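Hi, here's the filled form for the chain we discussed.

Project: internal
Contact: R.S.
Residues: 172
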Amino acid sequence: MSAYGAGKAGDTDFRRKWDRSEYAERARAREERDRLNEKNEDRKRRGLPAIKPKNEQDDQQPKELMKMRENKIQLDANLGKIQVVQGGATGEASRQPGFYCKACNIVVKDSVNYLDHINGRKHQQAVGVQLKVERASVDSVKDRLALLKRKKEAPEEEEYGKRETVCYLFIT
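And the returned structure, exactly as it came back:
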């Protein structure tokens, strides 16, 4: 019986068993990281931005393709109103006035920049949307054209079932 457990004990059972494949993978990752650092140093000398390392976890998550936004963004709901904005989320950015993006944890000061941010690459990646556009099938195009044709032939009526005509009288 050995001091390190029951059973057959050898001279070297107390030593650690090395997993060669694990250490080969670690060496490959270290060499790749060193190559990336060398490239970034060279790019820095030339005045170019650094290349970010790829995150393998991001590649494993399935991302949906980019598609048309279904809901309308209401930016003019509070137009002309003054109100005190109180952030509901934690953090310094959420307490500032403006448009707060939870996915990116930033505050944008005006609506134009907010729309640019929502449609931008960084926000789409943070939300988990690929920047590739969904390829439309023939049937979906036919359905969409039929819908647009129906809308054109029978335009929706205004409230109360009638349209109002507005006439302007200019007096000189």
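Let me know if anything looks off before we file it.
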